[in-house]
Every structure is written in structure tokens, then in C-alpha cells.
Amino acid sequence: MIEKKNNIHTVLLTGASGGLGSELADKISRHCKKMILLGKNKNSLLKIKKKLKKKHSSITCKVADIDLSKKIGVQKAVKFVKKEKRVDVLINCAGNFSVKSIINSSYKDLINDFHINFFAPFMLSKECSKKMLKFKRGIILNIGSSSSYIAAPNTSIYSSSKHALLGMNKAFQAELGNKGIRSIFAAPGSIQTKMGKKVKNQKYSTFIEPENLADFLISLILQNENMIINEVSINRANYK
Amino acid sequence: MIEKKNNIHTVLLTGASGGLGSELADKISRHCKKMILLGKNKNSLLKIKKKLKKKHSSITCKVADIDLSKKIGVQKAVKFVKKEKRVDVLINCAGNFSVKSIINSSYKDLINDFHINFFAPFMLSKECSKKMLKFKRGIILNIGSSSSYIAAPNTSIYSSSKHALLGMNKAFQAELGNKGIRSIFAAPGSIQTKMGKKVKNQKYSTFIEPENLADFLISLILQNENMIINEVSINRANYK
Amino acid sequence: MIEKKNNIHTVLLTGASGGLGSELADKISRHCKKMILLGKNKNSLLKIKKKLKKKHSSITCKVADIDLSKKIGVQKAVKFVKKEKRVDVLINCAGNFSVKSIINSSYKDLINDFHINFFAPFMLSKECSKKMLKFKRGIILNIGSSSSYIAAPNTSIYSSSKHALLGMNKAFQAELGNKGIRSIFAAPGSIQTKMGKKVKNQKYSTFIEPENLADFLISLILQNENMIINEVSINRANYK
Amino acid sequence: MIEKKNNIHTVLLTGASGGLGSELADKISRHCKKMILLGKNKNSLLKIKKKLKKKHSSITCKVADIDLSKKIGVQKAVKFVKKEKRVDVLINCAGNFSVKSIINSSYKDLINDFHINFFAPFMLSKECSKKMLKFKRGIILNIGSSSSYIAAPNTSIYSSSKHALLGMNKAFQAELGNKGIRSIFAAPGSIQTKMGKKVKNQKYSTFIEPENLADFLISLILQNENMIINEVSINRANYK
Fold first, then answer.
1. Which of A56, A168, A153 has its CA nearest to residue A119?
2. Across the interface, do A156 and B168 touch by the CB < 8 Å criterion?
3. Helix (H, G, I), strand (E, B), or coil: what is residue C53?
4. Distance (Å, rounded) from C-alpha C79 to C-alpha C60?
């Protein structure tokens, strides 16, 4: 069993069954007493829970399979949060990456991806903020993308939603930053995950390894309260 | 009657009954044969139509009152466009500016404002692009905001949606720019309109006058085809 | 002879004998009473002067060949300005574009290009600001580049200096914007000039035509005093 | 004596006698075999050297007091580097923060601050890159500022030079990133150092503590080679 540091009480993580999310769950488990893991895949979530309990017998771990790309999923997730006494760290990691031409992008594509990439993060951040405000303390880590700053062909919905997420991060910082809520925006480039496999014209083997990225992202959360990592862009070292 | 230059065939303008939109309608009328004006207020639209017909007897002017903050409104607008043979210039001017704290922002606020500020521009741009691609030529002018780059307290939804619009503009440029569709992103600061009256802590009389702004925005559309004004930020000269 | 509008008293233009500068000189001449043209090439400057006098017999036109890539040139230019009673519009157009690898860039390359691309604009803007402050009115137009935002290989000095110029524009706006001095930052992509011929991997014939660009840039200066065009990026429409 | 990890061979650090630099020297010493410390204050440098030798008896530590705000200082620093066989990590930390109105900024102010804030980092980065290219491996950490993105009144020179540094970081990444040289740009806000004491209208006690910041900055260097932290902005948590 790994040594445990309980600096954080409760962590809420979305996209916990995904390639990056599962690594984040693993890495953050050392640092908190309770974890709430939302994800699409129930089996994966249960496996992760089992693994974490084995690592840290004292940890409380709640899991819920929720499809955040639907209105009803977002509502369910919000209800889930409402029941919690506290959420000290929220990690908005869930996201969908559609590779589609503008002409072939439907209203449904748009609305679904905006639910998971933006409306869910917004509503969960709002709900968790209410709890954080009581403690005058909390961290929201938003997983953005290089697409939060630029746009490539066939990723119009993704780019737009990740731009929106960046705007949201700035807005939370501007409005709640002086009340103890620190919003961190991390924008990684392509990652060696299922999502990364959809990326065209780039060599998969050069992509960021999720484990390394997760280590770094968790370190952002653990920085001294005296400072805040506002925005960080991370890329693969593309020379290999 | 004012001298008329018919450089552009058909223009589609949203938010045409608003403070900036009505000025844009007026200024662009000199340069096109046909105008399609979408707006919230039917009476205002009819008045504008009458005024434009008086100015330019030869112009064709279609108006439709559609609430773009609803899914059904966006769908109606898309249908409206589908019926047109061509749209040479699309101006995404409609928008809503909510001043609301994060904690008081509901899912409904979010979804409504994203419909008018982002989903409508996206779906209309997509639909018009299909027509423009046939002519290998077209202009989409997106009216962004200084909130496309920064965020102030109590404007989280607006900032996020205007960031999304900026992402969309970049995506259209990246994907359709080499096919003759020029996407222009104009980001004005506070304007002397109803919307501008909601802005806190700034002196209204120093805001940009909509007529001056409209003149400039139309000039962006009329630039030589050899070049494209990608992004422009416009502010009030705040020294008065 | 072309109709003349004397809205502006004195204009100072650097890089006036260059590809873009000579077009700017031509276009602005309609709008001012007096022009001060700085450039590298004396013969070109005299030819431009002759042409402008022919077009507008009433215009006063002073020319000076000064090498702004040297400390002594910057000092000479500043002295030149000191003698003027007023400068209402300053256009910082002079610039050098070095295509050189980092490893082959010498201290001399660096210092020379920074003199023409940044120190000259800074010192001239400062000097002209003193005069503008007396009238509580003035415009500084800085010609930036797409390299003010991104960097391509073999253009490290150019990119850095154009980033510096952007920083300078923001600083002038922040400090002197509320005293009537409007700073405009225009960032064009590749232009069909001698400088543009150095650009690698892009088709010259698709580059922005200097005449079209000059027209647009002058229009930025002529906007209503009520507003200011803070930053604008212009690109070639690359679909041809 | 503290446990030592020799992952890095030689580190070159500028500004080593300053508030942030001395912390960086201390924190990086655990990770390298040899340190080259450049700074303004000889006594401080010698004290730091003594302290580091006490902590890690095996470390090689060279110090040199060089004034990088002068051409001759930059040349001396470059010569110093030329003598080294290798530099694996370069940290460009030296910098000067002038608080001065535009009108009162002289050519000398400009040229001096650009030497320390930009020309020294450029020339040292170039020189170290030559060595790094032999090993196909190296890290350049540039200490930027929030002034690399925005500008406040009375900081025109600082903002411009820090914008230039950002442009340089992008240029190195674009040109040498695929050859194993990773350029990291870290942009902290106000820090509790002598330099920070010059900042107006902000509460000093809320500024970032240099020790915390140094820990974070060193962690950026120690990330897995698979990825690179391109740009990161760090701010004080301003709610205290």
C-alpha cells in the first residue's frame, strides 16, 4: 500500500473511465479522502474503484455512470453533486472529440458535444462552487486543449467548445478567484489515448503519455495556496 | 435616393432589429440586391424594410421574426436559408448579453444564450457555406466582443459563448478559407445600444456609436477579395 | 488633381520608400496638409515627393533618408521630429525582415533589426506623443505582422521584434489612450513587396497587394474619433 | 546533506543573485552536477556558492558577476558559455523591471533593459543551443511575466521586452523543438522580491512567494522528456 497524504477531502472527477481520466483518478487518490468518479463505462469505473480501494483501504470511492453528452446526464450529475457535503477539487476531464467537416456537422453533433465539453463543466463548476464558497477554498481544474487557442480543419465543434471552456475558466477566475476558488486551465496537445487515435496527420507514438500528463496535472492542484496556475499549455516533445 | 452599388447579391443578417443590426441593415443596403433580415421584433423589421425600400426601390427585402435563443428558432432560420438560391454575405449579429452571477446562472440561461450567441451562428454559417461553396465565394462576418478574449465578473455565459464564436471563426477559416469563404471576426467593446446599457462600471456616453461601428464593419466586407480581415478588435476611445 | 480632404495636419511616415510605405504615402496624401517621409532610399523619396506635389500642389512634403537600423539613425529621426510643431499621425512602417537560422543570427543582426523594428518606433512614438499630448489628440499606427502572434522557423529576430512592437502598442494604449492618443496595431500577413519575396514556402502571387492593404490601413486612421481599432490582423485570401 | 539526483549535468542560470534566481539556484542544485551562476552581485553569488557546496559537497559551482544590461556584459556571458563543454539546462531569469512613464523613458533605459531582458536571453539561448544540438537534448526555461501578454501604464519597456521574450520562446520552439531543444515559457505575476516591491496598486503580501514559485519552475524542467510545458502563466491567489 502506497503512503497516503490527505491534503484534500473530496475530489469530483468526470471522464474517469477514459484514457486520461483513469490516470488522474489513480494519481489523485493518494491525496484525498473521498473520490467521486463520473464516467461513461460502468465496468471500467468499478474496476478503477476496486483498484483504488486496494491501494488505499481508507478511501471512500463513489462511482456513477452518466452520459454527460445529454441534458439528462448533466442534470443527473448536478443532482449527484448536490447530495455531497463538500467538493474540494473538481476536475472537468470528460470530453468528446469529433472529427467531422463543418458541412457534415449536425445540430445534434453540436449540442451533444457542447453538453459534454462545456455545459457539463459549467453546471458542475457552478454547483461545486457553491460548496467551495462555504469553505472559502476550492480548485477547479479544466482540461482544455491546444484547440482552445487554435483550430484545425474538421474540428470546428471541438475547437469552439474548448474555446468556450477557456472563456469559462477566465470567467470563474474573474468572479470567484477572490473568494478562494482557484480555476486552472490546462491545455494539452495530442495524448496517447483512444481520443488521440482520431487525430489525423500526426504520429501517435510521439503523443503525450497519459501517465506523465496526469502526474503533471495533479501537481498543478497541489501547488501552494499562495499561487495559482492560471493557464498552461503542454505539448508532446515532437522530435522523436 | 442614394446611389447604389450592387457588388453583393444576397445578404443574410441576424439581429436586424437590434441597435447594431438595424444600422448594419441600413449600411449594407447600398451594396446588395437582396436582403434577408432576421430579428426578434416583427414591427421593427417591417419598419426597417419600409425604410430600405424607400431608399433603394430596386432592393428585395425579406424579413422574418425568429427567436434564435430557442432550438426551434434556429431550425426555422436554417429552413429559411435552405429556400434561398444564394447567400453571398452572412452577418451573425444577433446575440444576448446576460449580466448574471455564476451562482445564479441556470441551465436554461446557458442553453438559451448559447443558442442565440453560438448555435445559431454555427448552423447558419454551415448552411450558408453550402451555398457559398457553389460560387467558391462568400463572406461570413461574426460579431464577437471584447469578451471573446477576456472575461469580466457576472458575464460568464456571454464570455464563454463569445469565446466559442471566436473558435468557430478560426475553424471556418481553417477549413473553408481555401475554398473561397472568408470568415471575419470583429470584436467590438461596449456600444451605445440597449445591450450596452447593461454594462456596469463604464460611462455609457463614451461607448462606441453604432452608426460609426456599422460603417466600419461593412467596410470589412467590402475589402478586396485578395485579402481578408481575420480578426479585429474595436474599442471606444475612452478619453472623453 | 484629386480632391483633397484636410482632416489631418501633419503625418510622419517611416519606411516611406518601401513597398508598403510608398503606397501609404500616396493614400494618406489626400488627407493631410503636411507629410514627413523617412526612408532608406533618397532617390525614391524624392520621386515620391515629386509625385505627391503633382497630385496635391498645396501639400508640404519633407523627406529625409535615414537608416533606422542604426542608433545614429534613430537619434537623427528623433531630432527631425523635435523640430516639428506638431505630428498628428505617426505611421511606424519601416521594418526589416531577416530570414536567418537562430544559430547564424549574430548580436549585430539582432541589434540592427531591433533598432528599425522596435527602438525607432518606440522613440518616434514617444517623441510624437509629446506633441500629440498638447493637442490631446493623435494617432499612432504600428505596422506589425502575423509574426507578432506566432513564430516560424528562421524568423526568430523578426518575430521577437514584432512581438515587442505589439507589447509597445498595448503599453501606449494603456498609458496614453485616456489622454487622446489612439494606438492602432495592424498585423498583415505576407505582402507582395520586396520583403514578401523573402518568405519561404508560400506562393507570392497569393500575397496581399500593397495598394489594397494601404487603402485599408489608411481607413483605420480615418475612423470616427469615438472609436479606436486596437488590433487587426489581415491575411491574404489564400484560396487562389 | 540532502539527497541528490543527478539527472542533469550542467545548468546555467542568470539572475542568480536575485530574489527568484537565488531560490532557483537552491532548488535546481539537487538535480545537477555542475552549476554556472551569473548575477550582478559578486558577494551574493559567493554566498550562494558556499551554501550550495555545503548542501551538496560533490557539486561544481562556477559564479561570475556580469552586468547583462550592457553589451559588454552580454558578450562576456557568451564567452563564458563558449568555454563550457555542455549546458543541459539554461534558465534565463535575469531581468530588470523599470517603472517609468513613456515620456520619461530614454533611449538608454530602453537599450539597457532590452539587453538584460531580451538580448542576453537570446544570445545565451543561441550559444547554449549549439551545445544542446550536439546532445540532441536540452531545456531553455525563459522567465517571462504577465507583462508578456498585457501591458499596464508605466511599464512600456518591460512589457515590450517580455513580449519579445515570448516571441523568442515561440521561435526557438518552432525552429529547434524538433531537434531536442525544449523551450519553456513561464509567466509569473507579481512576486515577493525586490522587483515586486516596485509594483504599484497591488498588495505586496498577496504576491507569489519566490520559494513556491521556484519549486514549481524547477518541476517544469524535470517533466518527462516525452512532453514539454510550452507556456504557463502563474498568478498570486489574490483572495487573501
1. A168
2. yes
3. helix
4. 19
Cα of D2 to nearest chain C Cα, Å: 38
Using CB atoms and an 8 Å cut-off, which of residues 158-187 of chain C contact chain D?
159-168, 170-176
Which chain B residues have a beta carbon less than 8 Å from that of A173? 151
pLDDT more than 90, % of chain B: 89
Please check whether residue D117 is in contact with residue D95, taking contact to mean a CB–CB distance below 8 angstroms.
yes
Cβ-count burial D97-119 (b if 16+ within 10 Å, e if not): bbeeebeebeeeebbbbbbbbbb
Give the tens place of pLDDT for each residue, B39-78.
Answer: 999 999 999 999 999 999 999 999 999 999 999 999 999 9
CB A177 within 8 A of CB A76: no
pTM of the model: 0.97
Residue C76 to residue C177: CA distance in whole angstroms: 27
Say whether residue B20 is in contact with chain C using an 8 A CB cutoff.
Answer: no
Main-chain phi, psi angles of B141, to 5 degrees: -105, 115
Measured distance CA(B100)–CA(B109) in Å, rounded: 9
Phi, psi (degrees; rounded to nearest 5) at C181: -100, 115
Q: Which of B154, B149, B158, B221 is nearest to B184 (CA)?
A: B221
Q: How many CB pairs under 8 A join A and D?
A: 91
pLDDT per residue as tens digits for the range A40-54: 999 999 999 999 999
Cα–Cα distance list, B66 to B125, C206, D106 (Å):
17, 40, 59
Residues B56 and B136: their CA atoms lie apart, in Å, by 28
For residue C169, list its beta bridge partners.
Answer: none
Subunit contact C234:B229, Cβ cutoff 8 A:
yes
Report, as an integer, the average pLDDT of D200-211. Answer: 89
Residues of C in contact with B229 (CB under 8 A): 216, 232-234
> With contact defined as beta carbons under 8 Å apart, do D127 and D84 qualify?
no
Q: Say if the Cβ atoms of B164 and A168 lie within 8 Å.
A: no
Average pLDDT over residues A206-235: 95
Asked if residues C102 and D89 have their Cβ atoms less than 8 Å apart, the reply is no
User: In the beta sheet, which residues pair with residue D100?
Assistant: D155
**Residue C232 backbone dihedrals phi, psi, to 5 degrees:** -145, 135
Residue in chain D lying closest to C149 (CA): D167
- pLDDT band for position A239 (50/70/90)? low
For C220, list phi and psi in degrees, rounded to 5: -65, -35
pLDDT at A3: 60
Name the grid cell of D122. Answer: 537570446
Residue C101 in contact with partner chain B when CB distance is under 8 A: no
Residues of B in contact with C232 (CB under 8 A): 229, 231-233
Which residue among D225, D233, D237 sits closest to A237, beta carbon to beta carbon?
D225
d(CA B61, CA B63): 7
Residues 6+ apart with CB under 8 A from A196: A19, A190, A204, A207
Q: Tell me the β-bridge partners of B10.
A: B34
Interface test with B, best of A78, A97, A102 (most B CBs within 10 A): A102
Q: Does B149 reach chain C within 8 Å, measured CB to CB?
A: no
Torsion sign, CA atoms B51, B56, B61, B66? negative
Residue type, A187: A
Under 8 Å between Cβ of D212 and D27:
no
Q: Which chains sit next to A, with 3 or more Cβ pairs under 8 A?
A: B, D
ipTM of the complex: 0.96
Q: What is the largest CA-CA distance in chain C?
A: 53
- Provide the H-helix boundaries in B115-234: 120-135, 156-176, 194-197, 210-221
Virtual torsion, Cα D9, D13, D18, D19, nearest 10 deg:
-60
Rounded to 5 degrees, φ, ψ at C191 are -120, 150
**Other Cβ atoms closer than 10 A to B138:** 24
Q: Are the Cβ atoms of C167 and D163 closer than 8 angstroms?
A: yes
Q: Tell me how far apart the alpha carbons of residues D35 and B137 are, in angstroms, rounded to a whole number.
A: 60
